[in-house]
Every structure is written in C-alpha cells, then in structure tokens.
Amino acid sequence: MNTVEKDIVSRQLETARLRTHMLERAAAEVGTRRVLLIHGNVSSGEFFRELMASVPPSWHVVAPDLRGYGHTEAAPIDAVRGVRDWADDLDALLDALNWPDADVLGWSMGGGVALQLAVQSTRRVRSLTLVAPVSPYGFGGTHGAEGTPNSPDFAGSGGGTVNAAFVAAVAAGDRSDAPGSPRDVLRKFYVNPARFAPTAEQEERWLESMLHTRTGDDFYPGDAAASPHWPHVAPGTRGVANAFSAQHMNVSAFADLNPPPPVLWVRGDADAIIGDSSLFDLAHLGALGAVPGWPGAQACPPQPMLAQTRALLERATQQGGEFREVVLPGVGHSPFIEAPGEFLAAFTAHLEGQH
Prior knowledge:
The chain is of the alpha/beta class. The protein has helices at residues 49-54, 84-97, 109-120, 164-171, 182-190, 200-211, 240-243, 282-287, 305-316, 335-338, 340-354; strands at residues 9-14, 19-25, 33-38, 59-64, 102-107, 125-131, 142-143, 148-149, 215-216, 220-221, 224-226, 233-235, 263-268, 323-328. The protein contains eleven helices and 14 strands. Helix 3 links the parallel strand 5 and strand 6 (125-131). The two termini are 35 Å apart.
C-alpha cells in the first residue's frame, strides 16, 4: 500500500452508460459533503490520490476515470457532441452513486467537462472548482474574449494539432525519459519543474496513469481534416482533441444560468499548458518561430485562454453568480499537486464557506 492510500479504494461501477472505474474515499460520518473530481487529458483519477487523502474526513470523494482513460470501459468519443459524452457519463455515475448533487472540481480538460455538467444538470452542481481549466471555447484556434474562430473551419485546433510522436509514445507504453516522452512531458509540463519534482513513487503512478490513455481516431487524439488555413489542419469529428475544439465545444451558456453555482478558479502563474502564451497552442508556437509558416497575429493570433475564462465568469456575475480567482506563484499546471497546502486551504474554504 502506498503512502497516500489511507481509506481510498478502487472500484468499478456499472452505470446506465458504461462501466466506470473510480477511486473513492467514503466519509467518516453521516451528513457528508459529496465531491466529484474530474481529471484532465492524458491522465486519470489517479492524479487526485494525494488530494483525496487530505480533504476533511466528512467529505465523500470520488475520482472517476473518464471514458478513454484509466480503467474505465473503452467507449468511443463523439466529438461532434463536444464534451457532452463525458458530462453525460458523469450524470449517469451520479445516478449510480445515488448522489442527488455534488461539489464538482474539474482540472484542465475536466474543467470544461465540469462546466458542461453545470450547464446541463445545474441543480446537481452545488459548487464548481476550476483548476487550470481549458477555455470555455476549447483549446486552440480562437481569439478574443468571446472565442471568435481564427478561421471558418477552426484550423489550429483538434486532433491534427497534437504531437504525433507523443501519441505514439503513449500507445507504445514508452517509459523512457527521452525528450518528448510521456515521462519527460510529465516532468516539464504537468508541473513547473523549477518548483516541484515528484517522488519516484509518484512519478511511476502518474506515468502509469498517462500510459492508460487510449489512442486512435475514436480516442486520443482523434481524427483530423485538411484545411486551406494555417496550420493546415482542422478538427475532425471523433476523439478527444476534437471534442475540446471550439468547433464542437462551447460551454459559455454557463454564464446564462440563473443563478450559476459559485466558482473557485485556481491556477498557477507558471502554467505552460493553459494560459495566454500556451506552449501547446500552435498559434503561439508559430509566433515564437517554432512552427513554420505562421501568417501573423492578425490572421492567426494566439488564444487568450485566461481572458476567455475570466470573461465568462465575469458575465456569470450578472446572473447572480460569484467567483474567486486564486493565482499561485511559481505553480504550473497542477496546483493541487504542486502547492497542496495552499490549494487545500482555498478548496476547503470554497466548499465549507458556500453552504
């Protein structure tokens, strides 16, 4: 048993949609708070183990593996539905758990799923915690606070923008530390290496989680279409990266809920994945000269991911919503891992203070 196991159990649960694997830590008392943790891309519920072990004992916490990840039943992802496949799966999971509602945390891609869940099942979401969340207009190919596409076919987003060598390494179960390998990406981009380095035990657990990502056109990264617009690839209709392309994903209706659930937005100021200068956004890489042929900022500006999220949350306040933005200095893409004390304090205050 590893050092953060405590009362966390792993189990499979049959739902009306698919067999879902999850980590679960039951509450130590009746009258519990129900907490749903939603992971991001190329990961699983395993990344939340430390957080689950540290939250108050009165919380009942589950961290499922989304379809396409971890040990959940493999089921294709219909990208035309945006992130709805995952949100529908979570609705079915809450039904199977007999949870009428939950406090919901979404990390990275999971932030978009959490927002979609709030849009379609508002009464089930008591509060939202968005951790380094994907923009409400998906990843790549848009500009402006309202997510205006850079081109009519949303070129610069979707399955064709994902590094093919990285996908091949995930599919091959590559455990090396070669540049660009899953281990290398974990060390350099999932966290800020200048601040945090995982223990050997953590690194192996998290790497194993990454390598359980299913690959291919129906999973990660998905299919792609040719485009006349730079970088000459547009979203397809299947798989992960197309599901969070702005062509298919738009959760801005969250701001129209009346009222929307209260939001805690936590991010690190050294996040290289989600930000206004993301090293995974081809437009930003083009501006840096790392991807050839970039047509310039007027034709293809980098995506202002933070501005887009902030605009959504500010608009939600007009419907009676409220949000708090917490920025952690020196922290990268995984605040709950890199700054566990600061994160837990903000997370606990948000949940305990709202209800």
